[in-house]
Design goal:
This protein is mainly β. It folds into 2 domains: about 290 residues, no CATH class; about 30 residues. It is about 10% helix and about 15% strand. The protein is built from 2 helices and 12 strands; from the N terminus they run βββαβββββββββα. Strands 1, 2, 3, 6, 7, 8, 9 and 12 form an 8-stranded mixed beta sheet that branches. A hairpin with a 5-residue loop joins β10 and β11. It is elongated and about 80 Å long. The protein starts with 20 loop residues before the first strand and ends with a helix.
Length: about 350
């Protein structure tokens, strides 16, 4: 069965549109597009990242450390495997042992493609392939693995778009503040003479040691409009007050999370450790409670270098085709001689 929902073709005469990878905080309710990929089929998290627009769904899924593999039958446009360089060393799922990605995957086990436009809190099954679809600024693209029928009425996502979409109306920087203090005054106690002014930037104070404890992920906080939604800030909190040269880092680093969230969203990728994640409850649009994987921000990182997979299936296919052709030629010659 041909699953046209994830098989797209490039528009004739139009060049490729590349998405620029952005920190998750740069996506807003009206700019950028959030990419979410659900690895819970293999016990993994729900990763989300941010990309610029204009772009295509395919380019969005192949930037900032994301990589895909198509099928030998349909080409790269049919998404057969997805991987992210900051998670499991860039391993792509499903593994070759589960799907060789030679033929079109069955409707019982494939990556289905979903969208949610700005302000929309329900998922729409994509009727276009990833190479043909152009996400709107402020929207969300989602990929889930499993059994989804080609109408998109069965095997729908179990969580709402507000679980992963950007909620901030303005971009938030990723710890890039200048952090210059403006206060003055005499110090006391240790005699360091440091001022009491607070940092003016959003970055970490230069005298504060970076956190050393690996981040741990908890379930995203639940909000009336959807749990764990959107805007994020960079790992590390801005320092305030008088710096202490002997001060140590906080017990646990902060992660990029929503300004309206009570908890933080862990981050994986460049400069971040892979967070331990566990499923957490969420509230669906109909008010019922369901379980979804923990949301983990996927920071822009380098793409993983990995083998494209074993060439054995292709070699076997080529040999079989050659043998069939040879047998056909021999039989034709034998018939001609018999005549």
């Amino acid at each position: 069965m041909l699953l046209t929902a994830v098989l797209g073709t490039a528009v004739a005469g139009a060049g490729p549109v590349a998405a620029a990878p952005l920190p998750i905080g740069r996506c807003t309710t009206s700019s950028g597009v959030v990419l979410a990929v659900d690895f819970s089929h293999w016990g993994g998290p729900l990763l989300r990242s941010c990309g610029s627009t204009p772009t295509t769904g395919y380019e969005l899924l192949n930037q900032g450390g994301w990589q895909t593999t198509g099928t030998a039958h349909d080409g790269p446009a049919f998404i057969c495997r997805i991987g992210y360089g900051g998670y499991q060393s860039g391993k792509q799922y499903p593994a070759p042992a589960q799907d060789s990605c030679v033929l079109t995957p069955p409707a019982t086990a494939y990556w289905s493609y979903w969208h949610a436009d700005p302000g929309q809190n329900s998922w729409t099954y994509s009727r276009l392939g990833a190479m043909s679809y152009h996400p709107k600024p402020g929207s969300v693209d989602l990929w889930i693995f499993g059994a989804t029928n080609i109408q998109g009425t069965q095997g729908r996502p179990t969580f709402s778009p507000d679980t992963v979409r950007a909620r901030n109306t303005a971009p938030t920087d990723s710890g890039s503040g200048s952090g210059s203090g403006s206060g003055s005054g005499s110090g006391s106690g240790s005699g360091s003479g440091s001022g009491s002014g607070s940092s003016g930037g959003s970055g970490s104070h230069p005298t504060t040691k970076p956190p050393t404890k690996a981040p741990t992920a908890g379930a995203p906080a639940t909000h009336p409009a959807g749990s764990g939604a959107g805007a994020s800030h960079a790992p590390g909190s801005p320092a305030t007050g008088t710096p202490n040269p002997t001060a140590t880092a906080p017990a646990a680093p902060t992660a990029s999370g929503s300004p309206t969230a009570a908890g933080a969203t862990p981050t994986v990728g460049a400069g971040a450790s892979t967070a331990a994640v566990s499923p957490g409850p969420t509230e669906t649009p109909d008010g019922s409670s369901s379980s979804h994987p923990a949301v983990v921000d996927a920071a822009p990182t380098a793409a993983a270098h990995h083998s494209s997979g074993s060439v054995l299936p292709f070699v076997i296919t080529a040999v079989v085709v050659a043998l069939i052709a040879s047998v056909t030629v021999v039989r034709v010659r034998q018939r001609r001689r018999a005549e």
